[in-house]
Specification:
The protein has 209 residues and is α/β, with parallel strands linked by helices. 23% of the residues lie in helices and 22% in strands. It is built from five helices and seven strands, in the order βααβαββαβαββ. Strands 5-3-4-2-1-6-7 form a seven-stranded mixed sheet. α2 runs parallel beside α3. It is globular and about 50 Å long.
């Protein structure tokens, strides 16, 4: 695949209890109980078999620094993927205002981060020790972008297909994309997950007046 997008079920104290959700109609999903469980989950995905050379791997992360480190320092390095972009989704009200004041350390912050890496020619799983200067240069090369969008249903991320095509894929028409842990199908993409078409149900969409 030229693009793989993931929104893993990271340990998240703000997520509702799974059993409560099933019995009360909540739209949340079961999250991992620990970072250790997340670590093994990522190892078992065999992403190296599915990501094409030069392909992009985009992973939604929480504001937990351990999650970011697991993606950047373990997953990306094991796959020979270099962090190239970091997108921040600022959640807004329908009027365009942030749902919470920015710059304040809220328990649930009004933004989420998407880390985007690109598969290089280097083999993954190489030397763990790197020079500090090389790490600093890598950080400087990361392109950071901010997007604003209204959040609606818990755990549903905005559809970024158009942005991926314009910014990362050069508006290619014959690329292959896969979304893992998908909760709604995207036209032209492959979707994988326990609830891969959950939010495609018309009950989750507002009908035009």
């Amino acid at each position: 695949f030229n693009l793989i997008l993931m929104d893993p079920p990271w340990p998240n104290r703000s997520a509702k209890d799974w059993e409560f959700g099933k019995t009360n109609g909540y739209t949340g999903y079961k999250s991992n109980d620990s970072m250790w469980e997340s670590y093994h989950m990522l190892r078992n995905l065999s992403l190296d078999m599915h990501l094409a050379p030069g392909g992009f791997l985009a992973v939604w992360v929480t504001n937990n620094e351990q999650v970011r480190e697991l993606v950047k320092d373990f997953l990306f390095k094991q796959l020979g993927v270099k962090l190239v972009e970091e997108w921040m989704w600022v959640k807004t009200t329908p009027k365009g205002d942030p749902v919470r004041e920015l710059g304040v350390k809220w328990w649930r912050r009004p933004y989420e981060v998407l880390l985007i890496g690109q598969k290089t020619d280097d083999e993954g799983g190489g030397e763990e020790e790197e020079e500090e200067e090389e790490e600093e240069e890598e950080e400087e090369e990361v392109k950071r972008r901010v997007m604003f969008a209204v959040g609606d249903i818990h755990s549903r991320k905005p559809c970024l297909k158009a942005l991926f095509e314009e910014i990362l894929l050069g508006r290619k028409e014959n690329y292959r994309a896969l979304e893992i842990f998908s909760r709604y199908g995207v036209a032209g993409w492959w979707s994988w997950g326990d609830e891969a078409i959950k939010f495609n149900w018309d009950g989750y969409w507002r009908k035009p007046e």
